[in-house]
Amino acid sequence: MKIKVGVLGATGLVGQRFVQLLADHPMFSLEVLAASERSAGKTYKEACNWYLSEGMPESVKDMTVIKTDPKAKEFEDVDIVFSALPSDLAKELEPKFAEDKLVFSNASAYRMEEDVPLIIPEVNEDHFALIDIQRDNRKWDGAIITNPNCSTICLCITLKPIMDNFGLESVFVSTMQAVSGAGYNGVPSMGILDNIIPYIKKEEEKMETESLKILGKFEDNKVKFADFKVSASCHRVPVIDGHLEAIFVKTSEGAEPEEIKEVMEKFDPLKDLDLPTYAKPIVIKEEEDRPQPRLDRNTGKGMSIVVGRIRKDKIFDVKYLALEHNTIRGAAGASVLNAELYVKKYL
Ligand code: A2P
Predict the structure, then answer these.
(1) 309: phi > 0 → left, psi -120 to 50 → alpha, else beta; which?
(2) Ligand 1 centre and the CA of 264: distance in Å?
(3) Is the CB of 121 within 6 Å of ligand 1?
């Protein structure tokens, strides 16, 4: 039997991706679409300014959007909610849903709390163990399970095989981030060509702190943060979907580009689990003008990180480019994959 799920913030940019991924999902049945009071009572097709190039799934068009109220009767039979709420609202509302439901959240509000798992399935599934600690601490029966910031996911997936094989000493990353990452407010800036915004609020801090939690070890009932140095510089560029990152890595043991390529190629930890949203986490492109957002963002239905130009660096050991579909692998897809893995392996 399918597990009943709902989406919070269902009309927003990440919310739409959740709806697209969950509309005809083999494990989950999408029962509730929730948004603000403005949208409540309207059908999803009336409430939603659908921005995805793939059309709106038929099955959701006539569903009635409800107000995001944890006490609403529509939520009674729902076991999992996916949250695409803005962070301030997530802070207030997610704990109310976590009383009796699993909340898979894309919001940043709880990511860095000690007892909240911040998961990338291929990287740190052992951190799901924090759920028991969270339930003890907070006296609730559900849980909040978060996925990282979009740019952090791309970075950490590529760092994981390097860390496991050669150790990490220092990492520098410079991002070129798509406007869809900025939510509805980002959409108007799609009209601004011939420009780059050299600042994204809180993004560099998120990349620098979240990475160390995700790549940290779960020991003695807590996450011991990783201790390599990481420095990020984040920038918004006039691309619709697809974050590109230039990543520079100094390993502890020293590594050649060929060796990095080999460990990235081999990295495929969950391939035998048959998770519906799973795709090979890293796909390598040999052509020197790849990866590019428009050509490569839909690799693995938007779930694969596309890596290219792995080459030697004079200051670090190696440098490479990594591309991620930011609203799929970097947001809704990340959260859905967390839920698929948790349900399949731990529930
Ligand atoms: P709505 O469309 O009704 O305003 P984005 O991140 O793309 O800006 O999307 C934000 C999402 O959060 C939308 O689905 C939006 O719904 C929803 N939202 C905004 N304010 C509230 C609120 N006060 N209560 C519940 N949901 C909200």
Answers:
(1) left
(2) 38
(3) no
CATH architecture, range 3-149+332-345:
3-Layer(aba) Sandwich (3.40)
Contact partners, residue 55, CB within 8 Å, separation at least 6: none
Q: Could you tell me which residues are beta bridge partners of residue 146?
A: 105, 118
Q: Alpha carbon of 179 to those of 73, 182, 236, 309, 330: distances in Å?
A: 36, 6, 7, 24, 13
Please spell the DSSP secondary structure of 175-203, one letter per residue: EEB-GGGG-GGGGGGGG--S--B---TTH
Residues 157-210: tens digit of each pLDDT: 999 999 999 999 999 999 999 998 887 666 566 667 888 999 999 999 999 999
Interatomic CA distance for residues 308 and 3, integer angstroms: 38
List the Cα angle 229/260/287 in 5-degree steps.
115
Q: Which two tokens stand for residue 3?
A: 């597990």
Active-site residue, 243 included: yes
Task: Say what the ipTM of the complex is.
Answer: 0.98
Residues in the chain, overall count: 347
CATH code matching the domain that covers 150-325, chosen among 3.30.460.10, 3.30.360.10, 3.40.50.720, 1.20.1050.10 = 3.30.360.10
Measured by CA distance, the residue closest to atom 23 of ligand 1 is: 36
Distances in whole angstroms, Cα of residue 90 to Cα of each of 14, 48, 61, 87, 178: 14, 20, 25, 5, 23
pLDDT digits over 123-138, tens only? 999 999 999 999 999 9
Q: Is the dihedral of CA 186, 188, 194, 197 positive or negative?
A: negative
Write the residue with the smallest CA distance to atom 18 of ligand 1.
36
Q: Are the C-beta atoms of 9 and 322 separated by less than 8 Å?
A: no
Q: Is the CB of 199 under 6 A from ligand 1?
A: no
325 catalytic per annotation? no
Kindly state the tokens that stand for 280.
């090979």
Q: Where are the domains of the chain?
A: 3-149+332-345, 150-325
Give 165: exposed, middle or buried? Use CB within 10 Å, 0-12, 13-18, 19+. Answer: middle
